[in-house]
Write a structure and sequence with these properties.
About 35% of the residues lie in helices and about 10% in strands. It is α+β, with helices and mostly antiparallel strands and about 280 residues long. It is globular and about 70 Å long. Bound molecules: iron/sulfur cluster (2 copies) and FE2/S2 (inorganic) cluster.
Length: about 280
C-alpha cells in the first residue's frame, strides 16, 4: 500500500532530459504538473503533452516517449526515473515523491541511441536475441502433432525466463554492456549500414537477457535441437565470457528473472562446449 503524505503537493515538479533528434545535444527542461492521486509517470507525460509549457512559462514541443501495454508487459516505456531504470507505466508518482519530494527526474535509457527525448532505439537488444537464436523453429504450418512432453519440474524451472519482456533494464545497468551509436555514412546504402550495425552488435556483449533466453530455449524439449548453435553463439566474441559478474542485472530486472543463475548455467555449457570442440578437432 502506498503511504501518502498528509498534505499532498499541489504540483509535481518534473525534470526531463530532452534531445531533439539522434546525435544532437541533450538539455534539461522543467515542467510543473497539477498533482492528482494515483498518477503514474505516463499520466504525467500525457499532461505535459496536452500543454507543453515549461515551469518558467515557455511554450515548447511536447516531450516524446514510448509506451504500449501500460501494464508492465511490453517494456516499451522503459526509462531512467529518479536515477533507476524502470517502466514508466508502473512507476507511481506517490511512491516517487516518497523517494524525492522535490522532483521527478526522467532520462532516456543510457545504453541505447536516443531517437528523441525519452524514446530510444532498442534494436540492438533484439539483434542479440537473433544471435543466440532465441526461438523454437517450426518448418511448416500444418499440424505436426503434440510435441515432446516437459515435466512440471522442468516447466517450473523454465517459467521465470519466459517472463522476459525485452525491456532492456538489465542491459542499461550492466557495466559490461557499452553504448554503441553508429552513424550511416554518405556512401553506404541502408542494407550496407544494417549489415555493419549487425556485425558491430555481434562483436559486443549480447547481454544477460539474451543469455537467459538461450538457456530458456535450450531447456525446451523442441528447442534442444538447436542447443549447440545457441551455446556456440554464447562462446563467440561478445558471449557469456564478457560478463564480469557484477550482478547489477539481476537487481534491476522488473520480472525478477534469475539472470545470474542463467549466466552461471551458460558459463558451464560454454566450458563443456569448448572442451568438446577441442576433442573433436
Ligand atoms: S552479472 Fe554480468 S550480465 Fe549481469 S550486470 Fe554483471 S556483468 Fe552484466
Ligand atoms: S531480463 Fe529482465 S531486465 Fe532484462 S530485458 Fe528481460 S525483463 Fe527486462
Ligand atoms: S507500456 Fe508496456 S511496459 Fe510500460
Amino acid at each position: 500500500m502506498i503511504s501518502r503524505s498528509k498534505t499532498s503537493p499541489e504540483h509535481v515538479e518534473v525534470r526531463v532530459l530532452r534531445q531533439a533528434a539522434p546525435q544532437q545535444r541533450s538539455y534539461w527542461e522543467r515542467f510543473r504538473v497539477a498533482y492528482e492521486p494515483d498518477m503514474n509517470v505516463i499520466s504525467v507525460l500525457q499532461r505535459i503533452a496536452a500543454r507543453p509549457r515549461t515551469a518558467d512559462g515557455q511554450d515548447v514541443t511536447p516531450v516524446a516517449w514510448d509506451c504500449n501495454c501500460l501494464e508492465e508487459v511490453c517494456g516499451a516505456c522503459t526509462m531512467v526515473v529518479n536515477g533507476r531504470v524502470r517502466q514508466s507505466c508502473s512507476a507511481l508518482v506517490d511512491r516517487l515523491l516518497e523517494e524525492n519530494p522535490a522532483e521527478i527526474e526522467l532520462r532516456p535509457m543510457t545504453k541505447f541511441p536516443v531517437l528523441r527525448d525519452l524514446m530510444v532505439d532498442r534494436s540492438r537488444l533484439f539483434r542479440a536475441l537473433e544471435k543466440v537464436k532465441a526461438w523454437v523453429p517450426v518448418d511448416s504450418y500444418h499440424d505436426m502433432g503434440a510435441g515432446p512432453r516437459q515435466s512440471p519440474e522442468a516447466q517450473q524451472e523454465s517459467y521465470p525466463y519466459s517472463q522476459c519482456m525485452s525491456c532492456g533494464c538489465c542491459l542499461d545497468a550492466c557495466p559490461q554492456y557499452r553504448k554503441i551509436e553508429l552513424i550511416q555514412r554518405d556512401d553506404e546504402t541502408d542494407e550496407q549500414f544494417a549489415a555493419r550495425q549487425a556485425a558491430t552488435y555481434d562483436r559486443n556483449f549480447v547481454g544477460p537477457h539474451a543469455i537467459a533466453q538461450a538457456i530458456l530455449f535450450n531447456q525446451n524439449p523442441t528447442g534442444q535441437m538447436n542447443a549447440d548453435e545457441r551455446v556456440e553463439a554464447l562462446t563467440a566474441p561478445g558471449g557469456v565470457q564478457v560478463c564480469g559478474n557484477a550482478q547489477n542485472c539481476v537487481s534491476v530486472c522488473p520480472k525478477e528473472i534469475p539472470l545470474t543463475t542463467a549466466i552461471a548455467q551458460a558459463g558451464r555449457a560454454a566450458t563443456v562446449h569448448s572442451i568438446k570442440r577441442w576433442f573433436d578437432r
